[in-house]
Amino acid sequence: MIAASGNSGRIERYAPASLEHVIAVGAVDQYNRLASFSTGGDHVDIAAPGIRVLSTGLNGYQLVTGTSFAAPFVAAAAGLLVSRAARRAYPLDSAAVRRILRASADPWSDNRVVGQGAGILNVYGALKALDREIDRGLTAN
Questions:
Q1: pLDDT per position in the chain (141 positions), as tens?
Q2: Please, what are the domains in the chain?
Q3: Residue 34's Cα: distance from chain center in Å?
């Protein structure tokens, strides 16, 4: 499960993001700067775009903001990882997805960012990391 961390801008826990085994997602702007409203804590895993995200509304397209709009980017990346692993007949559980997403995240450029996870979602980096992991496993056999 992947969930938005919350929009309080404080270090605190909201469910379901704070539950065990849930990948908690904070938000960044278009310059990969932490969104001021992004709720943080040691449970937050990663951040993704969450400011002025193009979405649909009842009257057409609109720009939306919040960690709720950052979480779908991470959900899509997780889906890509699972699909890629399945295509290569490689078992991939939720813990491995979390590990790969965190390990491949772009690090925070501002070293003052705390409680916002490993960094910023890098989908291409995550797919490359998965391929390397699978290739290492195949050569070990």
A1: 999 999 999 999 999 999 999 999 999 999 999 999 999 999 999 999 999 999 999 999 999 999 999 999 999 999 999 999 999 999 999 999 999 999 999 999 988 888 999 999 999 999 999 999 999 986 655
A2: 2-140 (3.40.50.200)
A3: 13
